[in-house]
């Protein structure tokens, strides 16, 4: 009888522990306004997804972009952006060939974005919001 109570107690403890861990690890945020997102970002650009990759060892998505217009910071014509592997960790899932308005921060020399950064897909033919200004061309590759 004592052993079954102990097992039941351990089961209940584990259930509470894992349920709280799931809640704590879920991504919760509100999408920032365009102005807030631009202020928080180090680089803001419009680009089309050229390739998609996964790095399971680092739990990351690596997305290649062909940069079309830069609104803040500097970005080359081709840029890789890193995000967490899944949405529960605030990772952003991009679709190949789609054009995005991307907000990134530089972490350890790499451009990172996340669900709460303000990054968003643009509809076909849609321009970047006029509040961002006219932007500039991406930096030419070094020769």
Set out the fold topology:
Blueprint: H1 2-25, H2 34-40, E1 43-55, E2 60-72, E3 78-84, E4 99-107, E5 110-112, E6 120-121
Parallel strand pairs: 3-5
Antiparallel strand pairs: 1-2, 1-4, 2-3, 4-5, 4-6
**Count of helix runs:** 2
Which H/E pattern describes the elements? HHEEEEEE
Strand order of the largest sheet: 1-2-3-5-4
- Alpha-carbon distance between the two ends: 77 Å
Description:
The protein is α+β, with helices and mostly antiparallel strands. It has helices at 2-25, 34-40; strands spanning 43-55, 60-72, 78-84, 99-107, 110-112, 120-121. The chain has a 5-stranded mixed barrel. A hairpin with a 2-residue loop joins strand 4 and strand 5. The radius of gyration is 20 Å and the shape is globular. It starts with a helix and ends in a 22-residue tail after the last strand.
């Amino acid at each position: 009888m004592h052993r079954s109570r102990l097992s039941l107690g351990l089961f209940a403890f584990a259930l509470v522990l894992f349920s709280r861990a799931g809640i704590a690890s879920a991504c919760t945020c509100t999408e920032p306004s365009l102005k807030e997102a631009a202020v928080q970002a180090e680089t803001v650009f419009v680009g089309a997804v050229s390739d998609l990759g996964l790095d399971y060892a680092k739990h990351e998505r690596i997305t290649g972009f062909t940069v079309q217009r830069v609104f803040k910071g500097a970005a080359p014509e081709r840029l890789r952006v890193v995000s967490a592997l899944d949405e529960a960790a605030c990772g952003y899932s991009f679709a190949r060939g789609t054009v995005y308005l991307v907000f990134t921060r530089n972490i350890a020399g790499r451009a990172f974005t996340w669900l709460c950064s303000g990054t968003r897909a643009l509809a076909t033919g849609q321009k970047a919001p006029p509040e961002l200004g006219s932007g500039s061309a991406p930096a030419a590759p070094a020769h």
